[in-house]
């Protein structure tokens, strides 16, 4: 499979995709490890499609801008646009595929911006800040509350989570997102990261998995 394209239901979606809609602090242990409070409502932010890169062939990080942290996440690809108040059935019908992905963060810059009470898009939206792998069909999972996500770096498992631990489950999360702004075919949803985030370095080798379903290898160039 060519990583330069995501094949879903026999169609081809070229990178960059649509926008990438993200949720922060969706795993309690991750919020705890960064000493962040658990949000009282979903904490949403958006990455532009221009920041999406493929894992295949390796990817670059802007190490000259401080620590670049990995955050492994379950990515959801929407194959259909959603209304502002979609039903559960409409959300499930719109989901085309799932993939393991990386949300990359300039952690030093993010901390500086947060300390000043400023938006932290600069820490989340740089070129290459969303690393995607090919998607498997949405029908690959019977239970969206039991999807694993695992990241191994240099042979050591760093993150090993499951959607069962999400504070905001996948379908209600997407329903909430759709109530805030338009979700369109080609958009990608990043569903939050489990505990175990940390810095990347040039030369690191990575394995991203939805255990038992898909597994992809790459490296930091």
From TrEMBL:
Residues 19-220 form the Fumarylacetoacetase-like C-terminal domain. One of its GO terms (molecular function) is acetylpyruvate hydrolase activity. Keywords: Hydrolase, Metal-binding. The keyword Hydrolase applies. Signal peptide: none annotated. InterPro entries: Fumarylacetoacetase-like_C, Fumarylacetoacetase_C_sf. NCBIfam families: PRK10691.1. Belongs to the hydratase/decarboxylase family. This is Fumarylacetoacetate hydrolase family protein. It comes from Pseudomonas brassicae.
